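Query structure, 239 tokens:
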């Protein structure tokens, strides 16, 4: 936040959700724009509040992390107050800043529904990727089950392993990411030499609690640019 003079916030209330008081206090020193539905604590300190339409006042397509369906949202109500949808705001800003004109709203909705979806009815589609449940044959571990980082490992097939995990204290983009990698100082020369060549010294933490020959990067923040993977591992950080 320190690097920006203007902060645009959509659908969030960081004055309440930020655990670090020093961080959200900085919002009061910025030019803050809130695009949301409620006049909450953050909206009240913003220099500009842009009221957004709710689901009943606009066309939309929505999905969820928790199920495989994509739902078509049809406009059911006319807004009684001056509100604007995400699409309308995007179209306006693109024009004001002289960017290429965006497509019509119906075209974007059509593009989404023509993706890898199975039509159930006019308002419900299903993601085809769920035809084969993920990890139906087990995980890529010796016993096909989850392995936790606190378990003892004995790797002999490869010189070293890179393990990433969902950081325990991180949620989406609200919180700081751990920018360190953790390694056992007694790991083999190949791994330690790779680290020396690729990772800045001040980002490496030596810890005897990490199994040998493992590079542990919470959330993959530092390590991701060096690896190409598709999430085929099943190692998790637990507390």
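Result returned for the query:
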């Amino acid at each position: 936040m320190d690097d920006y003079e203007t902060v645009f916030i959509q659908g969030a209330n960081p004055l309440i959700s930020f655990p670090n008081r020093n961080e959200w206090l900085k919002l009061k020193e910025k030019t803050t724009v809130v695009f949301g539905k409620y006049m909450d604590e953050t909206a009240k300190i913003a220099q500009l509040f842009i009221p957004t339409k709710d689901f009943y006042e606009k066309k939309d397509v929505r999905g969820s992390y928790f199920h495989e369906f994509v739902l078509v949202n049809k406009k059911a109500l006319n807004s009684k107050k001056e509100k604007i949808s995400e699409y309308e705001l995007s179209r306006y800003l693109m024009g004001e800043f002289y960017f290429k004109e965006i497509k019509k709203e119906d075209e974007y909705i059509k593009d989404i529904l023509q993706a890898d979806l199975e039509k159930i009815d006019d308002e419900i589609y299903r993601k085809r990727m769920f035809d084969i449940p993920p990890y139906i044959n087990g995980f890529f571990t010796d016993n096909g089950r989850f392995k936790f980082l606190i378990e003892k490992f004995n790797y002999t097939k490869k010189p070293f392993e890179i393990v990433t995990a969902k950081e325990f204290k991180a949620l989406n983009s609200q919180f700081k990411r751990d920018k360190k990698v953790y390694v056992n100082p007694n790991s083999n020369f190949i791994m330690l030499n790779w680290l020396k060549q690729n990772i800045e010294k001040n980002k490496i933490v030596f810890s005897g609690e990490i199994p040998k020959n493992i590079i542990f990067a919470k959330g993959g923040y530092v390590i991701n640019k060096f690896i190409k993977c598709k999430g085929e591992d099943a190692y998790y950080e637990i507390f």
